[in-house]
Amino acid sequence: MLLRRFASNVSALRAKDVSINAFVAFNDSESVSSNGPLNGCTIAVKDNICTSHLPTTASSAILKDFHSPFDATVVQILTKNGAEIIGKTNCDEFGMGSLNIHSVHGPVVNPFNVEERRAAGGSSGGSAAAVAAGLCHAALGTDTGGSIRLPASYCGVVGLKPSYGLVSRHGIISYADSLDTVGVLAKDVSTVENVFGHINKHDYRDPTSIDERVRERARNLSLEQYESNRHSNTQDLKGLRIGVPQEYFPSELSSNPIISSIRNILSLLRSRGATVLPVSLPSTKYALSAYYVIASAEGSSCLSRYDGIEYGLRVKPPGEENNIDTSAKIYAHTRSHGFGREVRKRILLGTYALSADAFDNYFLQAQRVRQMVRDDFDSVFFVSNILASSSTTPKSRKTDGVDVLIHPSAIRTAPRLPIADDAGEPESASRDTLQDYVQDVLTVPASLAGLPALSVPVPQAVRNQNVEKGDGWPIGVSVVGQWGSDELVLKVGRIIEEMERNGL
């Protein structure tokens, strides 16, 4: 797909971003990108992805003005292929948040209607808002428990969290190493697919990067059945089996306009030949607790490097000038002043989970639940999980199962931004914590299992079918596949995207 270069210059981008706050830094250099297949494609990069020519702060005071000496692998690949990195985007501090309000740079305002001051979602809210506002063709984000899919849903763009291990994490400021995944946001599936196709490569510098042979085997297994049933008529979906996880459609939300829109999507897919089946993922109810234990524990470990001594912010404690032993005080003062409230809470939770008294009851138990979640997904998919097999050539299919799962990306449209307190922190009292809990249940399980998940905007024509049309803000539908089936997930996402274009 040939992408046209934006005619607007950096000054125009800055002016447009004033009311959105999607960017924390713009690329003012006049260097010309290399020629390549992505020539003319402007890409924004989340502020927790290292860039040598722009600051990388992870939206934290503890990394104020930090400049990486190197580019992350994904940035290197994109620039080598001709893409133009136009700036760094706002995010929740170290990726810890779902509304992009925990940032030293201030909150991101959803560009769908800036006057209403609604959240762009987090933690990759700046990347989603930049795409939605037309400031770039695509943006890189990271997803630990829904940080790409939720902003994509709130802002009305496409967001892909790839299979864990397909995209290099070298040069990513870690939050939770076993969960962090680099992904892509854009206005359409084709652009996401184009950018993802370039960064979907093995990287020897990332110990979690999957070998090319394994990823190719998983791709072929996932497409085998789908391609064998395709016809020249692209509207004929015969052979595509779609699972609807019952745990993602709680009875409490039966009258929700979002649920109604997803059901309309499923009805349209069924009318075109797809088989829609109810499936059960019974461990879903335990997933969120396990996620917060694992993510917080890994976050506590990863963020221990910010000690005020080696690099980053340093806060001098009283007595340092008198040569008193203040190592512990430097550590405590720096972290107390440098980390925001949400990060401090998660560090404390994670540190406790890793303590000797709690390790067995919390961290190890959470890992057992994580395996239960993976087993649930493996039990409903046609294709075997190639990573769970003792061989790289497992039996291609079970006797039954589905190709993909479809469910809502979010249980609500973008909420209004909370009012900040005197310290500049968002008031927790103004937020519906129960809704936050239900929301995370929709995105966390796929992250625990390391599966590909794509959020696609529900076409306007589909939303208009509802008796209750809601508030008119974007709604996202998620497509989830077996590990390595990213290409199949994108194909199904494109089918949903094209519903409006091809007529209902």
TrEMBL record:
PROSITE patterns: AMIDASES. This is Glutamyl-tRNA(Gln) amidotransferase subunit A, mitochondrial. InterPro entries: Amidase (IPR000120), Amidase_CS (IPR020556), Amidase_dom (IPR023631), AS_sf (IPR036928), GatA (IPR004412). GO terms for molecular function: ATP binding; glutaminyl-tRNA synthase (glutamine-hydrolyzing) activity. It is found in: Mitochondrion. It comes from Collybiopsis confluens. Belongs to the amidase family. GatA subfamily. GO terms for biological process: glutaminyl-tRNAGln biosynthesis via transamidation; mitochondrial translation. Its EC number is 6.3.5.7. The active site is at 46 (charge relay system), 123 (charge relay system), 147 (acyl-ester intermediate). The lineage of its organism: Eukaryota, Fungi, Dikarya, Basidiomycota, Agaricomycotina. Subunit of the heterotrimeric GatCAB amidotransferase (AdT) complex, composed of A, B and C subunits. It holds the Pfam family Amidase.
